[in-house]
Structures are given as structure tokens and as C-alpha cells.
């Protein structure tokens, strides 16, 4: 009998310990609810994004649960954190406590070997490869080609028109720039088919990952396969051209990636790494720059004083050029005020609302446990609209960025931060500045719709921002 009691007692000790441990772990989790399986708070969050009330949606969570709370987004348990300290915590622990695994819907559409997914040495290797093309020293040689693409766009879609819709045209422009500069795909049926598949693909990136017929997610997965097939054919063609020495290793991003070997061990990028990172670059260059240019045009229509100052700066540059001469890298450095206006647009209307990381080990923040495998979510507007960081945040004030060193670290995060700061920053800067230069010096415009916008998840102004355009008189 004593032996039986002892056996039962010894059996119950680990059970008791396990239950106690689970209870303590549960007590250390942030407050909040995970909601329904798979769906969680995804539909509520996406609905708030579309209604442009996502920041208020998060503020209500903060008021209810405090600065750290749990929820479920896109099929995974998630901890929401916010503020300057939270941004610093996430960016400084990247690769040690967190990895940049994206939601399942994003990962299956874009592939698992893209720079958003990789960590450690793999991330450094792929990022270094991309930066060989995207660094300023390399991009200088492509300013003229980007200038030519933008002039062609305005000639085809603006000149001779009385009314245009800005956002779809800007997406058309940025995709054509990507095809030309990054992929070496000229105008024609191939480019048209690629952009059509690409548009279907990106529709489901931020969606509930339910792979059933007729769902947005299902359509995006099918489109992703088509895009990858087309890109694979393109990569094969570029590889043959390089082997036959009929193209330059710096002709475009694809030839650059194909020609790169790791300095230490001469390891080439895998085909999956090339394909998946091309797709990420496509999305980054297509969506973000087109949104920023659209909201710049919207702002300039609403703010005559800012428009006048931008126009004056750009006309001075235009006067320094001979007829038909392309802009050069040196001209972009003179567009200081225009870039400060752009930075303030990125503060008030960041194209990307927030970001995700995945905990690779149990991690503590704010006195709470973030379990291994859970997502961490933070939202960019939470610091961009913080009055203690940016006084009177509802006011549009480009002077905030006259001295960028005065902006507190980890507060302006439109391009991310830490080791994962956007590698395409300089590419986007060139694209935006060259585009605005020709738009403000060649046209005037006025809005044909209200100033409202929604997020899907990128900001989309009412009706895509229809405007009436008038050609400007030639400068004396």
C-alpha cells in the first residue's frame, strides 16, 4: 500500500509542476483575447484599416488592456506593442529574440526565401546582394533611365488629357519603372501580362489565410504561381545572356543578382532566393512609391504655399538644364525642400501601417511573456502621431525634417529600422523626386473628390484621386 501511495505521489509531482507552470505562464501573458480560431481579430483589424480608423481601433485596445495586449492576427496569436521603446525593442532584438517571419498569407504568396523571411547570415547575404544594385553609388547611373520612363509616362497619360485618376496611373508608372530598371522587361505583351498577374497576387497578401475557391487568398496564390513562372523564365534568359556575354552584369537587378557570389565562400544566390526577392522588390517598388507620389499630389492641391515652394525649387533646377537634358544625381541633391515635404507625407500617411516579427524564443517585454512562435505586431502611426515626439502632429509641417538628427531615434520608422531598414530607400527617393519634378513643372491640377482615404491595406484616396489637369506655361 505504501508503495502504491509513493508511486501515485511521484506520478502527481510532475503533473502538478506542469499545471502550475502552465498557470504561471498563462498569468504572464498580456491581457486580451485571441478571439475565434484562425479569424481572431483579423476581420476587425482589416475593417478598421479600410475605414481608416485602425489607429483608433488600436487606441481602444490600449485603453482597455494597457500598452501590451494579445490578439490573433492572420491565423497566429499576436502581441501588440507600441511606442518608441517598442520600436527600439523590436529592431534591436531582430535575429536574437525575433525573426521577420511574415503572416502565413504573405509567406505562401511571396515565398519563404525572401529578405522579409530570412534571418542571420542568410539575411545578411541576400541583403548585401540587393544593396550592390540598390546602393546610391550604383543607382546614380540609372537616374537618366528613370527620367526617360517618367517623361514617356507623362506624354502617354497626362499630355492632352483634361482629367486623370492619379493612383492607378502612379501604379502603372512605378511598375513600368520596375520592369525597365530592375528586370529589363521592355513595354509590350510580356510586361502587360506580368502586371495583370501581379495585381491579382498582391490583393491577398493581407488577408485571412483561408484557401478555399473564390476567396481573395486563393486567387492570390494562383496568381503568385503564374508570376513566379514568368519570372523564372526571365531569370533563365538573363542567365544565358550573361553566359554568352551579350548583357552587362549591371544591366538590371536580375543580372546583378545572378552575377553575385558571396565573398567568403563564393556561394551563389539560389534560384528561389532570386525569385522570391524579386517579388518582394516588385511589391515594395510598386505600392509604396505610387502611394507617396499620389498623396504628394493630393497635398500640393490642398496647400498652395507648400506647392509654391516646391515649384520654385523645381523650376530653379529646370532652368539649369538645357532643352531635353535628363536630370542627374546632382540635381536630386538640390531638392531638399521637396524631400522634406515627402518625409512629412511619410509621417502623416505612411504607406505601410505596421510590421510583424515572430518570437524565436520566449521573450519578455513590459513585464509580460511573448511565447516562442507568437507574432509581435507594432503600428507605425503610434509614434508618427505622438504629440510628445512630433508636436501638434495633425499639422503638416515639413520643417520637422530640416535637421533629421533632431528627430528622436526609433520614432520615425516609415522605412523601418535597425538591420532591416528598407534597402530600396534610395531607389524610392529617386523615383519620387524625379516624378514630382516633371509633374509640378509641367502641370497644374485641382482635386475632383473629397480628401478622405481608406487602407486596403495601403492608403487609397477617394476614387483613386481624380484630378483636373492643365499644362503649365513654358518658363521664360
Overview of this protein structure:
- Its cofactor is heme.
- It comes from Malus baccata (Siberian crab apple).
- It is a single-pass membrane protein.
- Its main location: membrane.
- The protein has a single domain, classed as Cytochrome p450, CATH 1.10.630.
- Helices cover 53% and strands 10% of the residues.
- The protein has 18 helices and twelve strands.
- The strands form four sheets. It has a five-stranded mixed beta sheet, with helices on both faces. It has a three-stranded antiparallel beta sheet with strand order 4-12-9. Strands 6-7 form a two-stranded antiparallel ribbon.
- It is globular, with a radius of gyration of 25 Å.
- The relative contact order is 0.15.
| Termini Cα gap | 108 Å
Low-confidence segments, given as residue ranges, are 3-24, 262-266
Shape designation: globular
Give the averaged pLDDT, no decimals: 87
Strand content: 5-15%
Question: The biggest beta sheet, please?
Answer: 5 strands, mixed
**Do you know the CATH architecture?**
Orthogonal Bundle
Write down the secondary-structure element order. Answer: HHHEEHEHHHHEHHHHHHHHEEEEHHEEEE
Please write the CATH class name: Mainly Alpha
Radius of gyration equals 25 Å
| Count of the domains | 1
Q: At the fourth CATH level, what is the homologous superfamily?
A: Cytochrome P450
Main structural class: alpha+beta
- Order of strands, main sheet, comes to 1-2-8-5-3
GO cellular component, one term: membrane
Main location: membrane
Protein name: Cytochrome P450
GO molecular function, one term: iron ion binding
Amino acid at each position: 500500500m505504501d508503495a502504491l501511495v509513493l508511486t501515485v505521489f511521484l506520478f502527481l509531482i510532475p503533473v502538478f509542476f506542469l499545471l502550475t507552470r502552465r498557470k504561471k505562464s498563462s498569468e504572464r501573458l498580456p491581457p486580451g483575447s485571441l478571439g475565434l480560431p484562425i479569424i481572431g481579430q483579423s476581420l476587425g483589424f482589416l475593417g478598421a484599416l479600410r475605414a481608416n480608423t485602425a489607429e483608433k481601433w488600436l487606441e481602444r485596445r490600449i485603453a482597455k488592456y494597457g500598452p501590451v495586449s494579445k490578439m490573433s492576427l492572420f491565423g497566429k496569436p499576436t502581441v501588440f506593442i507600441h511606442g518608441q521603446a517598442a520600436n527600439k525593442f523590436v529592431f534591436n532584438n531582430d535575429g536574437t529574440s525575433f525573426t521577420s517571419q511574415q503572416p502565413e498569407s504573405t509567406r505562401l504568396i511571396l515565398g519563404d526565401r525572401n529578405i522579409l523571411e530570412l534571418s542571420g547570415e542568410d539575411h545578411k547575404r541576400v541583403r548585401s546582394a540587393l544593396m550592390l544594385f540598390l546602393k546610391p553609388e550604383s543607382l546614380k547611373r540609372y537616374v537618366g533611365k528613370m527620367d526617360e520612363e517618367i517623361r514617356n509616362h507623362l506624354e502617354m497619360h497626362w499630355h492632352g488629357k483634361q482629367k486623370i485618376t492619379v493612383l492607378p496611373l502612379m501604379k502603372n508608372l512605378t511598375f513600368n519603372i520596375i520592369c525597365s530598371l530592375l528586370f529589363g522587361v521592355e513595354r509590350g505583351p510580356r510586361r502587360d501580362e506580368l502586371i495583370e498577374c501581379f495585381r491579382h497576387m498582391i490583393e491577398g497578401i493581407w488577408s485571412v489565410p483561408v484557401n478555399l475557391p473564390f476567396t481573395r487568398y486563393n486567387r492570390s496564390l494562383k496568381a503568385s504561381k503564374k508570376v513566379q513562372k514568368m519570372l523564372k523564365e526571365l531569370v533563365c534568359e538573363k542567365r544565358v545572356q550573361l553566359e554568352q556575354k551579350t548583357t552587362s552584369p549591371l544591366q538590371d537587378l536580375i543580372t546583378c543578382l545572378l552575377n553575385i557570389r558571396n565573398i567568403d565562400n563564393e556561394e551563389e544566390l539560389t534560384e528561389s532566393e532570386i525569385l522570391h526577392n524579386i517579388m518582394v522588390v516588385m511589391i515594395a517598388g510598386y505600392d509604396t512609391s505610387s502611394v507617396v507620389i499620389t498623396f504628394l499630389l493630393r497635398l500640393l492641391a490642398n496647400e498652395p504655399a507648400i506647392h509654391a515652394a516646391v515649384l520654385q525649387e523645381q523650376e530653379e533646377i529646370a532652368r539649369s538644364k538645357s532643352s531635353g537634358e535628363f536630370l542627374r544625381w546632382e540635381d536630386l541633391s538640390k531638392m531638399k525642400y521637396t524631400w522634406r515635404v515627402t518625409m512629412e507625407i511619410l509621417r502623416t500617411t505612411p504607406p505601410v501601417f505596421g510590421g510583424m516579427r515572430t518570437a524565436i524564443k520566449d521573450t519578455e517585454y513590459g513585464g509580460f511573456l511573448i511565447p516562442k512562435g507568437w507574432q509581435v505586431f507594432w503600428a507605425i502611426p503610434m509614434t508618427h502621431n505622438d504629440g510628445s515626439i512630433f508636436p501638434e502632429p495633425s499639422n503638416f509641417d515639413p520643417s520637422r525634417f530640416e535637421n533629421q538628427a533632431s528627430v528622436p531615434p526609433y520614432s520615425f520608422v516609415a522605412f523601418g529600422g535597425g538591420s532591416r531598414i528598407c534597402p530600396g530607400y534610395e531607389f524610392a527617393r529617386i523615383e519620387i523626386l524625379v516624378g514630382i519634378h516633371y509633374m509640378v513643372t509641367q502641370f497644374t491640377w485641382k482635386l475632383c473628390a473629397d480628401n478622405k482615404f481608406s487602407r486596403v491595406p495601403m492608403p487609397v484616396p477617394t476614387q483613386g484621386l481624380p484630378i483636373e489637369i492643365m499644362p503649365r506655361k513654358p518658363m521664360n
